[in-house]
Specification:
The protein is mainly alpha-helical and 78 residues long. The protein has two helices and two strands; from the N terminus they run ααββ. The protein has one domain. It has a two-stranded antiparallel sheet with strand order 1-2. The termini are far apart.
Length: 78
């Protein structure tokens, strides 16, 4: 799937780009836009980690218990 996507992108670039100057402009914009896209799609996951666990370490909050009925908070004192 990735190979086909790369191939399709190269075909589109080969048909659309008429000069090396255009190619340089496309290459100069591609990386920043890809990083911006990655940041936009990762932001919800980052916010979820911050809100539910209080950190970005990936560890779950000790006060959050996941049950078959869904997540619930543990009573204080445990």
């Amino acid at each position: 799937m990735v190979a086909f996507t790369v191939f399709a992108a190269l075909v589109v670039l080969g048909v659309a780009i008429r000069s090396s100057r255009q190619l340089a402009a496309v290459a100069a914009w591609a990386l920043p836009m890809a990083l911006l896209g990655l940041a936009l799609v990762s932001a919800p996951d980052l916010l979820e980690q911050l809100l539910f666990s209080g950190s970005c370490s990936g560890e779950r909050s000790p006060l959050l218990l996941t049950t078959s009925a869904g997540p619930r908070l543990l009573p204080a004192g445990r």
